[in-house]
Amino acid sequence: MDSTDFIASRASYFRKLDEIRQNGTLTFYQDKTWFNSGEEKRTIWIDKQGQGKMRTNQRKGLRLALSALINENGFHHQSIDLLKCDQEHSMDSMHFIHWIG
Question: How many structural domains compose the chain?
């Protein structure tokens, strides 16, 4: 990430982002997350060194994928999409095109 090409690309990206913001263009970012069936957070075990982890369920099975557009004001509520899927699959390209369109 410290290569000259990466640094130049990052600088170009932030210049373009500044231009877009100065023009008053609305900018949204797409994000997604998953909720696994059977997942729970009841306690977090912490050892003497302050390290810990949540209880996990190894049998994830079905899950919900949540996608949304976000900007500096928070979620764009009309864009929130819940997709029921299995552990190996989330949103495919056709679903994404339909959702974003």
Answer: 1
